[in-house]
Write a structure and sequence with these properties.
3 domains, five-stranded mixed sheet, 33% helix, binds FE2/S2 (inorganic) cluster, Ubiquitin-like (UB roll), alpha+beta, binds flavin-adenine dinucleotide, DNA polymerase, domain 1, Uridine Diphospho-n-acetylenolpyruvylglucosamine Reductase, domain 3, 492 residues
Length: 492
């Protein structure tokens, strides 16, 4: 981080624009050209802006454009809208049944909050070689649909990336859809990742999609992340497999070939030498896992159409940002706007500029100081609040973008008569805090798990809370407290 950077605030001033339609968004993007940045979940964009790596003159939010988050089957293909969140994709039954590499990639993604906020369009639009969704989507044969003033164009996703932080997107263009073909019978896929800690981007990642006919490999695609300037397909290694009998010896030789074909560098996360070793192991394990999935019996797998019906209700349940209304249009960089926020069931008014963060408005204007500031860049989750029922990081949410959404902070857990929420009572009973700084974020994240899963296991609790850091290391008692509020499964 820049020595002078203060991640508590967003120093960059910018026009904030909230187009209500795709056409309006494209027109604005064309008008502003490279002076504008698209805002989806903000988990990359706001971090880069806070770190003063970029300073756009305009931020164009795509969060009010209807339909951009839909996941739908059309013409025998699965269309994933650019604004579909990583969480929604991970939980989509069609993705789980047909594209397990993509489910693996979404599941490996950082923290619960980043999964809830982050979108596939942002993950690809960021152009990072470490993108988790990219290797999986490339091996699954995804195409990127790009919309601009001249209409739509499509290209294979592997051609979307041109260098670190660079994509083929031109000024005035938006990535609108990721389109996946229905896999042929006998296909299996897998994604694996190695990172420094659970909630981090990859030191190296790899995806494999393989098609079998008996013991023979009919087709295979392999792609890797964090091992080259862009997410990279290893075509030479793939050719070694196609048409061959799948065997231990062949897999070992292909994995070695992957290690030779990639082009890694030394950086803060890893050395080039380690990345070559890691890619070899990822290729070896990935090939075995994908092969095992390809050859498993999928008689119980729902059809595209059946899974589609199921996913509609699930999607409504998981919808991150409720009805799309209350668009505030445009707020100029130097303008202050009186906005209305719904916090803890009450309406609050606040004067905000485009660069005011929800965290600071809650704490400083609404005096709701329960929500804490820790890192300011998405890494500690101390600032977690719920937005329309989903846990989000208030340090990475622009206050102007929160208009019309239901926000819950720790103060809202207590009933009006002063009675504490059962989870708060459990935290007291199990001594699940020491200094208490992480507690509000823990409570709101744990509440979202209990709302989503009636009978979570201890592993579920640990996984869901993995991004909530506690410097007093009170995790065991926190997990006990959450488990004490989980409903017992009903025994037959
Ligand atoms: C703590 C932390 C952990 C993370 N861990 C991971 C991880 O494990 N794996 C991983 O892959 N990433 C990780 N990330 C990065 C980030 O969360 C993901 O890349 C995420 O998917 C970005 O989505 P977003 O909607 O938040 O993007 P935004 O921040 O809104 O946008 C990202 C970039 O893409 C552009 N953009 C957004 N949408 C579009 C679009 N539709 N068309 C064109 N351009 C667009 C934006 O202008 C911006 O340049 C992490 C980030 C943080 C802060
Ligand atoms: S303060 Fe928001 S994640 Fe650390
Ligand atoms: S109780 Fe102190 S940081 Fe968690």
């Amino acid at each position: 981080m820049n020595e002078m950077t203060n991640s508590h605030i967003l120093i960059n001033q910018f026009d904030y624009l909230e187009p209500a339609s795709l056409q309006e968004a494209i027109t604005l993007l064309a008008q502003y050209g490279n002076r504008a940045r698209v805002l989806a979940g903000g988990t990359d964009l706001l971090v880069h802006m806070k770190m003063e790596r970029i300073a756009p003159q305009a931020v164009i939010s795509i969060n009010r454009i209807p339909g951009l988050d839909r996941i739908a089957v059309q013409d025998g293909h699965l269309h994933i809208g650019a604004r579909a969140t990583i969480h929604a994709i991970e939980n989509d039954p069609r993705v789980q049944a047909y594209y397990p590499a993509l489910t693996d990639a979404c599941a490996s993604f950082s923290t619960t909050q980043v999964q809830t906020m982050g979108t596939v369009g942002g993950n690809l639009g960021n152009g990072s070689p470490a993108s988790d969704s990219a290797p999986a989507l490339i091996t699954l044969g995804a195409e990127a649909e790009i919309t601009g003033l001249d209409g739509k164009r499509r290209l294979p996703l592997e051609e979307f990336f041109v260098g670190p932080g660079k994509t083929v997107l031109q000024d005035g263009e938006l990535l609108t859809d990721v389109i996946l073909p229905q896999p042929q019978i006998g296909t299996g896929s897998a994604f694996l990742k190695i990172s420094r800690v659970a909630a981090d981007i990859a030191k190296a990642s790899g995806a494999v999609t393989i098609v079998h006919d008996g013991g023979r490999v009919v087709d295979c695609r392999m792609a890797f992340g964090s091992v080259a300037p862009t997410p990279m397909r290893t075509c030479k290694a793939e050719q070694m497999l196609i048409g061959q009998e799948f065997s231990e010896d062949l897999v070992a030789r292909v994995a070695q070939a992957v290690s030779a074909e990639i082009a890694p560098i030394d950086d803060v996360r890893s050395s080039a030498w380690y990345r070559r070793e890691a890619a070899r192991v990822l290729a070896y394990d990935g090939l075995h896992r994908a092969w095992q999935r390809a050859t498993a019996c999928y008689s119980e797998r729902p059809s595209f159409a059946e899974a589609s019906k199921e996913s509609l209700s699930q999607k409504e349940m998981l919808r991150p940002f409720g009805p799309q209304h209350d668009s505030i249009g445009r707020v100029g960089a130097n303008e202050k706007r009186l906005i209305e926020l719904r916090v803890n069931g009450q309406r609050h008014r606040a004067w905000v500029s485009p660069n005011d963060l929800l965290l600071n408005v809650l704490r400083e204007q609404l005096q709701l100081t329960g929500t804490k500031y820790g890192c300011g860049i998405g890494e500690c989750s101390a600032c977690t609040v719920q937005m329309n029922g989903e846990p989000v990081l208030a340090c990475l949410v622009l206050a102007v973008s929160a208009v019309g959404k239901d926000i819950l902070t720790v103060e809202g857990l207590q009933k009006p008569n002063g009675e504490l929420d059962p989870l708060q009572e459990a935290f007291i009973e199990h001594a699940a805090f020491q200094c208490g700084y992480c507690t509000p974020g823990m409570l709101l994240t744990a509440k979202s798990l209990l709302a989503e899963k009636l009978h979570p296991t201890e592993d579920d609790v640990r996984h869901h809370l993995r991004g909530n850091l506690c410097r007093c290391t009170g995790y065991a008692s926190i997990v006990r407290a959450v488990m004490s509020c989980a409903q017992e499964p009903i025994r037959e």
